């Protein structure tokens, strides 16, 4: 029986992943800033609910140590906790951007660092980092959010190469729009710039208008994620949602066409052998 450690279980993907795992007989370390919001999970299976603010490194280390003490080790880490911010790049408030990076990137890195010693000792484990299709493609009004997810994608790529010889896998999960609380809870700047109304402003309003009507079903996504992790050959990247799939492939096509057109330039700047 595998032990899964999941951040951000009070709502959204984290909640659905935890519930599905408990329904299928797994052990779950469910974390949230407010454990009252996950107290009901205790009646659904073998679960250890822990208070965890992922931006508190001491609390991260304590939660991981408690999980390892209770269950003997962590088999799968799911870095799910995250926050959003709707603003054009020029509109963005530096303090708000830094707070978002603390949650979306630096906190995820801290949790990874905390679980790796145990995984290395056992020479096994899977680290799952929930990024976003915004970690592969930038979009208006969420430039800094996308940047935080691009950063986590890059960290995951490097980490994958470092830990593969140790028997540890790394998967990034790139969802498109799902019916979670993310769009409703994302912050906005105090002041907006009229010149960005047709781009970032329109996108920000579209995000708000989409709440509850997004195409993605988080319960189905949770099942797909667990299947992918437990498959004989887990993917390095898992796209979730039609929009995510179409957007990712369209970007690959654009990049390949542009790179191919500039091949002679790229190859023409190395020093002679």
UniProtKB/TrEMBL annotation:
SUPFAM superfamilies: NAD(P)-binding Rossmann-fold domains. Pfam families: adh_short. SMART domains: PKS_KR. Residues 2-176 form the Ketoreductase domain. InterPro entries: KR_dom (IPR057326), NAD(P)-bd_dom_sf (IPR036291), Sc_DH/Rdtase_CS (IPR020904), SDR_fam (IPR002347), SDR_oxidoreductase (IPR051911). One of its GO terms (molecular function) is oxidoreductase activity. It comes from the Bacteria. Keywords: Oxidoreductase. NCBIfam families: PRK06180.1 (NF004824). Belongs to the short-chain dehydrogenases/reductases (SDR) family. PANTHER family: SHORT CHAIN DEHYDROGENASE, SHORT-CHAIN DEHYDROGENASE_REDUCTASE FAMILY PROTEIN. This is NADP-dependent 3-hydroxy acid dehydrogenase YdfG.
């Amino acid at each position: 029986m595998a032990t899964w450690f999941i951040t951000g279980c009070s709502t959204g993907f984290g909640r659905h992943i935890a519930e599905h795992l408990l329904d299928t007989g797994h052990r779950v370390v469910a974390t949230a800033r407010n454990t009252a919001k996950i107290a009901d999970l205790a009646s659904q299976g073998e679960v250890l609910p822990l208070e965890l603010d992922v931006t508190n490194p001491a609390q991260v280390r304590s939660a991981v140590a408690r999980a390892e003490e209770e269950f003997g080790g962590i088999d799968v880490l799911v870095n799910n906790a995250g926050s959003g911010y709707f603003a054009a790049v020029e509109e963005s408030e530096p303090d708000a951007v830094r707070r978002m990076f603390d949650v979306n990137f630096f906190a995820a890195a801290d949790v990874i660092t905390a679980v790796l010693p145990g995984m290395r000792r056992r020479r096994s484990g899977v680290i799952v980092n929930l990024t976003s299709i915004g970690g592969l493609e930038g979009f208006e009004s969420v430039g800094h959010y996308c940047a935080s997810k691009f950063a986590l994608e890059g960290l995951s790529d490097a980490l994958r190469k470092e830990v593969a010889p140790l028997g540890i896998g790394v998967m990034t999960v790139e969802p498109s729009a799902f019916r979670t609380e993310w769009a409703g809870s994302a912050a906005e700047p105090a002041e907006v710039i009229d010149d960005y109304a047709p781009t970032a402003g329109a996108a920000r309003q579209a995000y708000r208008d989409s709440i509850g009507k997004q195409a993605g079903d988080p319960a189905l996504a949770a099942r797909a994620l667990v299947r992918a992790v437990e498959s004989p050959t887990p993917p390095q990247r898992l796209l979730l949602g039609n929009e995510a799939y179409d957007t990712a492939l369209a970007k690959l096509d654009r990049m390949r066409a542009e790179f191919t057109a500039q091949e002679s330039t790229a190859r023409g700047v190395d020093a002679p052998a």
